[in-house]
Design brief:
Blueprint lengths: L7 H8 L5 E2 L22 E2 L13 E7 L14 E2 L4 E3 L2 E5 L4 E5 L6 E6 L12 E2 L3 E5 L10 E7 L3 E6 L14 E3 L14 E2 L5 E3 L2 E4 L2 E2 L12 E5 L5 E5 L32 E3 L4 E5 L21 E6 L5 E6 L15 E7 L2 E9 L5 E5 L10 E4 L13 E4 L21 H13 L14 E3 L13 E3 L4 E7 L3 E7 L17 E4 L6 E7 L14 E7 L5 E6 L26 E4 L3 E4 L6 E6 L5 E6 L9 E4 L5 E9 L6 E9 L4
Parallel strand pairs: 2-37, 4-9
Antiparallel strand pairs: 1-10, 3-43, 5-6, 6-7, 7-8, 10-11, 11-12, 12-13, 14-17, 15-16, 16-18, 18-19, 20-21, 21-22, 22-23, 24-25, 25-26, 27-28, 29-32, 30-31, 31-35, 32-34, 33-34, 35-36, 37-38, 38-39, 39-40, 41-42, 42-43
């Protein structure tokens, strides 16, 4: 899962947190990677420039570390996935694993300093069995040698927020109960089972508060676990505020945008992605998701404000400052999976603080950070009506008219693809039987083509921003899904399928609605997408001009044969999951593809400059830092997913050869 740049004064100001929070600065702070997105702002850009376009081809493996704890398949068919982005703060690397192991390493040698075992049950059936990292906080009110003066916070997938002493890995006993806060307590809608509520992202830390969202299982029931965002005192663990994206206060203007007797009982609308924070403005930026259930909204009619939005909250109080909704009345699982990036945009000779939000719909929204007003034009355009009894699709949807689409928005029959004529004929026949009225075609009983699919467009890999060049880099997917609503009384599970996810197809109960969901990837007989390649791409967009600079296919078909997928030789651009980073030297680094390479691209042209084979797909965001030996290191978690991306447990570090 990116890199940080010039504007060092602005960066330094953002890092100098107040009210008891210091952003872990040191003599080498500009060479550290102290937050998931390098800084709390989340732009994933590094000011380091030792690795250049000219020498990147000389990168070699500097060290490897095995995290252990691989679980190929849990008792409910869910493999664990190593997707952590390590942090480096003042000479120590910190990372987490899906089973709750927190590890401190020497960032130059990879030698382990300490580890803590949170002991997550490996037999749990979590939908996204991953942990994408930890957060580090320095208590400016404590002496530097005091116990827990610097704390490592991890939110384990089973709903525990844990504070550890960064020096020893021991729990901070003054935080919560013995170092632990139970995040399952106090929710408006408690989880229906142990796997409905998850924590996959590192918490945001802003002005002495630890702010957490949550991941809620999709499509289980209309009153799924609620998606409150909560802030806890970083010292004591005491709850300071909670904000519910489904409004419960009738005086809130958004309350009336949830219509129906059960609408305010709706669950989810949660923020499972990484939050961004602007400590100087006392703001935290929350990317919210779709309300439950994703594909039928008859029990929650209306625009459903605050869901599917970027919401700016006052960090000290949890009060809404502004919000911008990216999808009205979501019926497509178009949650805001990408973390927001807080950047400075140069516009008309002025530097404007902004928020960048990429969406699963393949759109890029750039908003004023203080007000939420679009900095590039946004239009409300008409959208198709639903033909499902009891459903009311919203009549318009927002379009980022001033910036180019990140992925294709339309699919014509003549564009359907396949490696053989039989594939292409099957794809054309299938499309002819489906409902497809272009973007935002609502789900239907006959089956609806959804493009982009629920994996995006832009996905949880998010964006990286080069502030010197004013370039946004976004990994995207370009495949379609078929969504079918099956009347509950008529549903019979196919033989051999129990409703759990299979490659390409899944069923979901959607309790409280008249329907069962069937969702499939739009594939031909050979097992490859019917949409034309590339199936995934890396995209560069200039915020100077508002134009797309380049689109580069990301990944190859290498390795698909092990899954029985017949892809033609030379196919480029595959489905991908993972993030990018940029550096001051004009490089973009990303893994993310099933062929298990990490790659370097020229940020200005999109040209591939280097790649190196990993032990499994790097479904994570890489990071870079300056070691005490004076070398710039590049690190990626290579864990795969147990299926398409392979399987491993390694942290791999690269560097230029010693001089």
């Amino acid at each position: 899962m990116t890199a940080y740049v010039a504007l060092l004064r602005a960066v330094a100001a953002a890092l100098m947190l107040t009210s008891g929070v210091t952003a872990c600065r040191s003599r080498s702070a500009d060479g550290d990677w102290a937050s998931y997105g390098r800084t709390p702002l989340g732009d994933r850009h590094s000011p380091l420039d030792q690795i250049t376009r000219e020498n990147v081809g000389r990168l070699t493996v500097a060290w490897r570390y095995h995290t252990g704890g691989i679980v190929s398949d849990s008792s409910r068919g869910r493999p664990t996935m190593l997707e952590t982005t390590p942090l480096v703060v003042d000479g120590t690397m910190y990372l987490s694993t899906p089973l709750g192991r927190v590890i401190a390493l020497d960032p130059v040698t990879g030698r382990e300093h300490w580890s803590y075992e949170a002991a997550v049950d490996p037999g749990s059936g979590f939908g996204d069995f991953a942990s994408r990292g930890v957060s580090v906080w320095r208590d400016s009110g404590a002496k530097s040698d005091a116990r827990c003066a610097r704390r490592v916070f991890v939110a384990t997938i089973d709903g525990r927020l844990i504070a550890l002493d960064a020096r020893t890995g021991a729990p901070c006993g003054d935080f919560g109960t013995g170092g632990v806060v139970d995040l399952l307590r106090g929710l408006r809608n408690p989880p229906g089972d142990s796997t409905e509520y998850e924590q996959t992202s590192p918490p945001a830390i802003v002005n002495g508060l630890v702010v957490v969202g949550s991941a809620v299982a999709d499509n289980s029931r209309i009153d799924a676990a609620s998606g409150e965002v909560r802030a806890f005192d970083a010292r004591s663990g005491a709850l300071r505020w909670a904000w519910d994206p489904v409004p419960q206060d009738s005086s809130d203007f958004a309350y009336t945008t949830w219509i129906g007797p059960h609408a305010h009982r709706t669950g989810a609308a949660n923020a499972w992605s990484v939050l961004a924070a602007d400590p100087a403005r006392d703001l935290v930026f929350v990317p919210t998701g779709s309300p439950s259930v994703d594909y039928y909204g008859g029990e929650r009619k209306g625009a459903n404000r605050y869901a599917n939005s970027i919401v700016a909250l006052r960090a000290s109080t949890g009060k809404i400052v502004w919000h911008f909704q990216t999808v009205h009345h979501d019926l497509w699982d178009y949650d805001n999976a990408s973390p927001p990036a807080l950047v400075t945009v140069r516009n008309g000779g002025r530097d404007i603080p902004a928020v960048i939000q990429a969406t699963k719909t393949g759109q890029l929204f750039v908003l004023n950070r203080d007000t939420g007003a679009p900095l590039f034009p946004v239009e409300e355009r008409s959208a198709p009506a639903s033909d499902v009894p009891g459903e009311s699709a919203w009549p318009t949807q927002p379009w980022s008219a001033g910036l180019p689409p990140l992925s294709p928005e339309h699919l014509e029959p003549r564009e359907l693809w396949g490696p053989t004529e039989a594939d292409r004929a099957a794809c054309r026949s299938r499309l002819a039987a489906l409902r497809y009225d272009g973007p935002y075609t609502p789900p239907s009983e006959r089956g609806t083509l959804v493009l982009p699919a629920n994996v995006g467009g832009a996905h949880w890999g998010g964006v990286a921003f080069d502030p010197i060049r004013q370039i946004v880099v976004v990994p995207t997917n370009r495949i379609a899904a078929v969504v079918t609503l099956i009347r509950r009384a008529e549903f019979q599970p196919p033989s051999g399928e129990d409703g759990h996810e299979r490659i390409g197809t899944e069923y979901a109960g959607m309790r409280g609605t008249p329907y069962v969901l069937k969702r499939e990837t739009f594939l031909g007989p050979s097992g490859v997408p019917c949409t034309p390649p590339p199936f995934g791409a890396l995209v560069g967009v200039s915020l100077k001009t508002g134009k797309a600079l380049w689109t580069t296919p990301l990944g190859t078909a290498e390795g698909l044969e092990r899954l029985g997928i017949k892809a033609p030789p030379g196919l480029r651009g595959m489905f991908n999951l993972g993030g990018a980073i940029t550096t001051a030297a004009g490089l973009t680094f990303i893994a993310a593809s099933p062929d298990a390479y990490i790659r370097a691209f020229d940020t200005e042209t999109g040209r591939e400059l280097w790649k190196n084979k990993l032990p499994a797909g790097g479904k994570a965001t890489p990071m870079t830092y300056l070691g005490r030996d004076g070398r710039q290191y590049l690190v990626i978690a290579a864990g795969g997913d147990g299926q398409l991306f392979g399987r491993a447990d390694e942290i791999v570090a690269f560097a230029l050869p010693p001089r």
